[in-house]
Amino acid sequence: MKTKLEKSLAALEKEAVKKLQQFVQIESTTGIEQKGQAFIAELMKEAGMEMDIWCPTDDDLKGLKGYDGCGADNLGDRPNVVGIAKGSGQGRSLILNGHVDTVPAGDLSKWIYGPYSGHIKDGELYGRGACDMKAGLLAAVFAYKAVKDAGIKLKGDVQIQSVIGEELGGVGTLACVGRGYQADGAIIMEPTSNVITTGEVGTMLFRIIIDGKPAHGSASYEGVNAIDKFCYVYKEIRNWADEYNQNSDEKKDPRFKNYKVPCDLSFGIVNAGTWCAMLPEFLTAEGRYGFPIKESVASARKLFEKELERISQQDEWLAEHPVRVEWYNVAWEPYDLPASHPLVTTLQEVCAEAGMSTEIGGNPYGTDIKYMNDMNTPAVIFGPGTIKKGHFVNESVPIKEYLQAINILARMIVRWCGAVE
Question: The pTM is what?
Answer without folding.
Answer: 0.92
